[in-house]
Amino acid sequence: MKRIINVGMDVHSESVRVAALDDKGEVVLEKGMPNSYQKIRATLDLIENYRPESAIRCCYEAGPSGYGLARKLRTDKTECMVVAPGKIPRKKNERIKTDRKDALSLARLMAFGALSEVAIPTEEDEEVRELLRYRNGKRKELQRVKKQLKSFFARHELKPPCPGTWTKKYKEWIRTLDCGREGLNKVKEGYLGDILRLEAELNGLEKDLRVRAESKRYAEKMAQLQLFRGIGFLTSFSLVVEIGDFNRFATAERFMGYLGLVPSEHSSGERIERGGITKTGNKELRKLLIEASWHYFMHRGVKGEEEQEERYQAYAIKADHRLRRKKFRMSQLNKKNDKVVVTALARELAGFVWGMMTEHMEN
After folding, report:
1. Domain-by-domain residue ranges, the chain?
2. CA 261, CA 253: separation in Å to the nearest integer?
């Protein structure tokens, strides 16, 4: 059996610090270099030549450096782990932080198995993920500009003649509105121009995403997820792309924990204290599932798709009945706040999503 050399890498945009430890914890090599794959590869080859009887495994923190380095190393048949920064054990009283200490610490923690690995997406998944996140950013920007325009109208007592906002009549009123002063009209036109530009960008992005969603890699799973109440195109696409392989979560509870939908806890001895949800993991997916769960407050029938297998439809119906009963019990019997209820429903819905995606639909 080959011995293992653990290599910790502190990766920055311009530089990389490498620290290699053998299975006895002794330093094999420490070296700083420019952030160049050729330099990193040459350093790892140097370690392999120095200890030919050993196998190398590497790790670095997830962050701005992305997944490119890990993919290249794996292509060259070198084991590489991308580590979740928030789950790295750290000393509370640590007052000195350097690239050298960080690289050594990663190598030591890797040897002890104390690091949590981040799933490395495929290049296709990463491309679509970037498009989805860019689209979400544009949507938030559009909401911000619309809010600014409404505040502008309120400050200058400009009230629309029609009820509701952002309807066709409302937009036509904005186009024809004379604010009474040249400067105010320029501001109004500026806001309106930003809104129209952002809406056009969003439409283009969504068309692109819908084309990509037709791929066999995504289409079947998305269709299954859309059987659940409240889960539509963007939510199902985001879940499939962001999670990738749902089987990396051994249980539904772990998937719920990844989304930060489980209660926080601080217990000691006889005392047990539980608080709000942890809010760890993927913030955007957590938000999407909470938004989907508001649909269980509405009295509408369960969704159905004739082309889906009967077992998937039955599972979605089971989820619908269970979540509706939970909503009734929490809201009507226990008089819980709606936000508390919808968070509990989102946690339950996450469990059903995991079950469908991993074929664990028997419970």
Report:
1. 3-112, 123-213, 218-357
2. 9
Position 175: which residue type? R
Domain 3-112 indexed as CATH 3.30.420.40: yes
Q: What is the tens place of the pLDDT at every residue in 98-116?
A: 999 999 999 999 999 999 9
- What residues have CB less than 8 Å from 185, skipping those under 6 apart? 178, 179
| Contact present, 138 and 198 (Cβ < 8 Å) | yes
Here the tokens at position 328 are 């009734």
What's the CA gap between 177 and 169, in Å, rounded? 12
Token pair of 272, please?
Answer: 């047990």
* Cβ within 8 Å of residue 217, ≥6 positions away: 124
Q: Are 303 and 225 in contact (CB under 8 A)?
A: no
Model confidence, pTM: 0.87
> Which residues of the chain are modeled with pLDDT < 70?
1, 299-308, 363
How far apart are the C-alpha atoms of 237 and 94, rounded to whole Å? 42
Which of these, 135, 195, 201, lies nearest to 170 by C-alpha position?
A: 195
Q: What angle do CA 17, 104, 126 make, to 5 degrees?
A: 60
